[in-house]
Amino acid sequence: MPGLAPVDSVDVEIIVDNVTDSLSSVPSFVETEMAGLARRRGGAWVLGGACLCCAAHGLSCLLTLRRGDSVHTVLFDSGPEDRTFEQNVSRLGIDLGPVEAMVLSHGHWDHAGAMLRALQLVRDRNGGREVPCYMHPDMFRSRAAKLPDGSFRLMEDVPSEAALTAHGGRVVSTRDAQEIAGDTLYVSGEIPRRSGFEVGLPGQHRRTLDNRGWELDELLIDERFIAFHVRDKGMVVLSACSHAGVVNVLSHARDCFPDVKLHAVLGGLHLSGTNERVIPQTVAALGGFGLDVIAAGHCTGWRAMSALANAFGDRKLVPLAVGKRLRF
Predict the structure, then answer these.
(1) What SS3 state is found at 126?
(2) How far does Cα 307 stand from its chain's mean position?
């Protein structure tokens, strides 16, 4: 069992997500974007478009972990581009100065596009100190989707190690699991693929190491999850896109922490597009983990959300939206 310290509470703020939803009712541990706006600004404000966050295809979460008198703040992914990230940080009233580390879940543009700007914003507020950036070496490989006609649609690269370093990042590139933020946050290693029906991202390729051609890369072995242990509740697993398959993710989390209950999973479940075909198997398998909360968003897709709602209802399903804050 990894040496992960239980925490007293954690706030997860959704800086970027595909969806905006300020009006739907939420459980007591969730604050909507609108409720947060009211809390921060009090009564002396006028509601208008200039107050609101922007939804975009991507995900970015800010974690604030509390253990006794210690507080640790970590940024998990940055979303797809600078403008959305910076605007939402400003409108949510988030202070990035306390961010002590950044973690990138996997090497896709919709999670890494604003990393350099995020680094700048953090260092503008922390006195210019460098920021550890936890990466997997394969995240830096160029990627593309192979089209039916045999051509390739290129994906924007994630920022290079050199670019991250130039912007004040200290790159920690490894395939192994780690505990960071005072041993309160677990960054997984590579996720074993065991479920049998979760096959990654069909059609994805990456550049060969000699940069002369393309090779199949459907499994995205560089993807990792992060997790924390909330005292008296259990493990909360953040899987930003679940290209490994959320069942594989949760199975590995359970293997890593066999003596701790799985309390919640949060993030994109990637059950949209070509992965819609495995929605029934995924929903059925999720029932076997005993989760209390399924906080799904980003690439999950409306068909999967509908299936999850039918299977778990309001007892467990908590759809993500930009501006929401979840307290565990």
Answers:
(1) coil
(2) 22
